Amino acid sequence: MAAEIKKADLTPHQYHLVDEMQRIRFGYIERLVIRDGQPVFVPGVTRTVRTILIERTNDPHPAAGDADTVLKAKVVKLLRHLEHVGDGLVRVLQINDGLPTRTVDVEESPADEFGFAIPGTPHPTPPPLRDIAVEEINNGDAR
Question: Which of these, 34, 56, 74, 125, is most buried using a 10 Å CB contact count?
């Protein structure tokens, strides 16, 4: 049996993500920057959208703000996936009752493939991933 992980065991960035998912309860988070495996809410870039369900309570999840809450397996798996991504951009993270849904859209740099690099050819430096969302907004590509 796996050891229980509580919100109090998380890094500050992970704690903030979990707390935000519980706060919005239903909805989604867009353009969440991942730096060194940590979720980073960037003002003016990251956006949270709460879905109001007419037939349900729309208050934050009862576990919001409680550091002693034991995390569900879905949340732990999400955090592990983000750590594995390293640096990237979560385009959309769907939230259902404070928990991530089955899929998360993540933009990341492609992996190097064997045999495709030409020796001595300079590689262009990619723009910092945190600037991708700003470029989208400036170019009108944002939702």
Answer: 34
